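Course assignment 3, question 2. Fill in each field.
Student: A.L.
Task: Predict the tertiary structure for the chain below.
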Amino acid sequence: MHWTEYFCEFIGTAILLFAGLTGIYLVSLVNVADVIKYFTIGLFFAIGLVIVVYSSIGKRSGGHVNPALTLAFWLNGLISGIDAVGYIVAQFAGAVFGAWLAFTIFDWKNPAVALTLPGLDYPALLVLIVEVIITLLLVIAVFSFVSSNKSGRYTGVAVGIYIIVVTVLFAAISGVGLNPARVFGPDAVLMRFDYILIYFTASVLGAVAAYGLFRGATMGAQPACCKLCYKTDGP
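Answer field:
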């Protein structure tokens, strides 16, 4: 067991949630077009992720801060079962802590805006499909970037850009969970678990599908690294 790495994932996920919810809080104060609102929210989550990935925290643990990514790396044999469990528990706990900080520090008029919720006019099946696809593409992108010596160091930046793009494109449909810890944090603090099963199911299906597709496309090759900052001297 690697307690330092678990603690890094806890702190990293807390930073990600706090940054993202800060963006949500700020746009809740103003009346702007949806595209600007979604871009801002995606940008704040992306900034939080990039800060974590390229900090000493991310260099130590890999900066997964997402149970779907940890699951995908475990399926590829790049992280042991016990460490995968440690990472995922730390990520969920960190998400709750980060969300709690955001709700404590900011004066929310309607805290429910921080929840990840489907669009009102979209069926649950469509929301599930969208979440599976965006999770699958996230994992495939990470696997592809970390498997190249040229692009590996840019994995965190690429994921940040991806978060912004999918938030702008799909937030109105699915809320863009993309990360079960991001969904769980605000849900746990506000005790609102209305749609959590959809997002959790989609994350697992997306990660498993991405693993299968990547293995098939590369004829069984593993990603070269399981750190979003790419290879470092540490384990």
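Instructor remarks: The chain has one domain: 3-217. The chain is about 70% helix and 0% strand.
Grade: pending
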